[in-house]
Sequence to fold (304 residues):
Amino acid sequence: MQISSRFTVALHIFTCVEVFRGEYKITSDFLASSIHTNPVLIRKILAQLKAAGLITVARGTGGIEITRALSEISFYDVYEAIEPLEDGDLFRFHDAPNPDCPVGRNIHALLDGKLAAIQRAMEEEMRKYTLADLDEGIRALLDAEQKGEEGT
Amino acid sequence: MQISSRFTVALHIFTCVEVFRGEYKITSDFLASSIHTNPVLIRKILAQLKAAGLITVARGTGGIEITRALSEISFYDVYEAIEPLEDGDLFRFHDAPNPDCPVGRNIHALLDGKLAAIQRAMEEEMRKYTLADLDEGIRALLDAEQKGEEGT
DNA sequence: TTTGATGTAACTATTGACATTACAACAAAG
DNA sequence: CTTTGTTGTAATGTCAATAGTTACATCAAA
Fold:
């Protein structure tokens, strides 16, 4: 089971906001065109990011503002805003294991700690990357493109 | 998006095989009863574990054998056998970002490395736990149950 | 008041998870 | 060699989530 594309779409949105700030008016239509999807999906994701307090969206006139310094928003913040995990658990269990079976009634006690550690390892790694890294990365890539063109 | 319960069901199966070996004949019906699901789901998971070479299943007569030492089968081995990840990637992207947009045509170069690192962090943690840990853990839990009963 | 944008609701298509029934294939015991 | 119990697997149904699309009310600024 893969993690839904809405997470990478959200990162794409942030990157566009950083790159095109001032240059273009960043609307949901504009973003939908870059990501190659439809504006409604973008607006739903923007609504989630707004609910998490990561951005503000100007109604009527359009325009997206990031509320914190880029280095203060990690991949995990974005992931948490976007992915609705039931009870915050990454791993699903089967509904109701048999309490009459010694294994069935102990399976949660047996696995919960280990699964939580695995989930934590992933989330900790997510905290290491921030929007500032994205900003830096995309500018390096665009510079490289520029130089490539000059070389021809 | 959560990881499907088939992974924890597989760990449940292994635990049952270890605990009830010799004591009961471990059939898909028996397992389905402990996990509280239906035998066909169990058989499909057994088929995946068999395809990965982790177990053998005796047709006709029934019975499951684990092919390696418990300490030689990690959670990751089970996860890999069970979860069909497209191209091995945990994170999904949107289908076809716009190549005319500077961000759209660079989004993979920008994100791929970081996402792979996050996935790797999770998988490395998964490698730390083995079926031997499960065996040890369940026996400790069952001993504790025993003592709790004696106490009353 | 017009214009252009966001916020949402409603509907659809597609996919995956999981449950369930049914039956063929098979191995061992009698 | 027939019975019995089990695995292997196809077919079908239900349910939830993803994602696309249309439509329109709401809103802010020119």
Remarks:
- The mean pLDDT of chain B is 94.
- Chain B touches chain A through 61 residues (CB under 8 Å).
